[in-house]
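Low-complexity protein
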Amino acid sequence: MSISLGFEIRKKLSEGQKDFKNMDLKMVYLERVDLSHTNLEESDLSYANLKGVNLSCANLKGAYLERANLTDANLIAANLKGANLQKACLIGANLRNAELDEVDLSGARLSGANLHEALWTRIYYDNDTEFGAEFDLNLLKDKKTYNLDLFSEQQITIEKILRQLNVVYKSAKYYLGNKLATKYLHDSKPNLDWLKGFEIDRNGEIIFTGALIEHVGSIETKLMEKLTEKWIADFTKNCALIIPHFSCPLDREQDK
């Protein structure tokens, strides 16, 4: 911990300074210091010891607080919009009326923290985030939470689907031509909102332009794969109506 930097900040606070915007405060030691109403916007407070600190009404917008110790911190009405709190310790922190929109809580420890009265439209977390037994994501209303681990799984699934679709579509264009292959591709697509995100770009490649689905888990991603398999199977059948010996190139890959 940077004790000397902590003394410097304490001195400036005693002189009435409140503006510490965009400062490098990595590993600063400020345990139980009164930082209320200070401006720490976009400052780097990673690995800082802020245990029991008073940050009420402080501006921490876009601040970097990775692995910071904010145990029992007073963050009432603090602005943490867009802050990085990855792996931060917020055990017992008071976040009542704190602005947490777009905050990254991946790997953060929040047991005993008051989050129910915090303000946000969306926050991000992952499977390592510890919310504590008293906090139930399912009871939230008008608030969105995004599990980044599940989003990663969904992105991998989409990349796999795109590869499969493009392999089959390319083969169909070779035998049927671009116009007919494109028609059969669209005609075979299941009528689901999520699949509407798959489109053909100017280069003739199938791309995904849709948005990732909130709260998607492993079961849902498996369902996405099954729906794609049906789409490809129906597409292959339609192509075979014109080219009787047309078969899915993915099946040929598996046979090798």
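thats it. Strands lie at 103-104, 122-125, 144-147, 198-200, 206-208. The radius of gyration is 26 Å. bye
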